[in-house]
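Case study.
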Amino acid sequence: MAGYRHLFIPGPTNVPEEVRMAMNVSMQDMRAPDFPEFTKPLFEKVQRVFKNTTGRVFLYPSSGTGAWEAAIQNTLCPGDKVLMSRFGQFSHLWVDMAQRLGLDVDVIDCDWGTGVPVEQYAERLKADTCHRIKAVFATHNETATGVTSDIKGVRAALDAANHPALLMVDGVSSIGSIEFDQDAWGVDCAVSGSQKGFMLPAGLGILSVSKWALDAHKRSEYPRTFFSFEDMIANNDNGYFPYTPATQLLRGLDTACDMIHAEGIENIWARHNRLASGVRAAVDAWGLRLCATESKWHSDTVSAILVPGDVDARDVIARAYGTYNTSLGSGLSKVMGKVFRIGHLGWMNEGMVTTALSVAEMAMIDVGMKIAPGSGVGAAISHFTATKAADATQAAA
Ligand SMILES: *Cc1c(COP(=O)(O)O)cnc(C)c1O
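After joint prediction, the assembly is written out as follows.
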């Protein structure tokens, strides 16, 4: 098919040309004497994306799932009691991993379309006066349902109970795109991966840990090898890795972090909010609803859009792909067939979002949905032009 194949799934996301070119380098000697001149500043640049000034970052040649595992194995002990919540496919998978790794998991099940139940966390923590709970887990952005949770609120619940449990956060589809402040929110393990907000191909598990997580590490009793903090630290401190690093991805990560810091992390959060608000305006104009049940849960990185009960969302996605050369995100597990998702994170702008919306409109009309042509796109354009005008006024003032 002629023309670009458009990618509007919530990961892997679009890779900027600069990042692709930065990875187009010949193989490098990862034990060369000048390799640390590249890696040491890279660790700092990555850490700044998390707003982590107390601890350090680990870059594993894995996907985000590996960083989930690294966080558990390096800070906890088998049999430890932990508090988790489940409201979508990704929070489900982290619970499943914690159970399989032998943690004693207290799972709070919530409706899909909602997020971390902060009040229930607060009650559980207050009641746990002998501090049996060793860690509290929270999925910051549930990518399956387009729900963002209140991590600051989870920290407040821990503090209100004066509770020492570690705070473990899955930020795979939030960090680098929407507000995240590891220091201010007291996040001990912040999990991410390369193929979402970091605008790279898959292949890096990125884990940012606080100094308290590094303390907990000393007491942790999991057997570990590949994900071992001690092996990583011993080598990273000198700018090297305990095994072959994915050097091309690290080159790309270096450029991606430079782009993030050049744009400014707060500006990136604002851009994602503006783009997501345009998508939400389109969804309203179509007369549809998001899977996220209330505006407080709305995600600025991914929108999961519910289709009417007599429509199979998989037909919309298939039409977009087969006819219009465009990937929209599918519904996972419980919401399969009920939603299609638009990923609007990473290297994304207004023109790309309106393309996603126009293809979604064509696909929905093709499968027989009553959508007025241009209705959603028009609403998004109105939003973008209005907010762009506001930006320009601000800049001029
Ligand atoms: C994508 C994603 C993951 C899994 O990451 P992989 O890189 O596929 O292992 C975990 N959590 C969330 C919230 C995600 O969006």
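Observations recorded in class. The domain at 18-262 is CATH 3.40.640.10 (Aspartate Aminotransferase; domain 2). Residues 11, 63-65, 90, 139, 141, 143, 170, 172-173, 193, 202 surround pyridoxal-5'-phosphate (CB under 6 Å). We will return to this complex in the next lecture.
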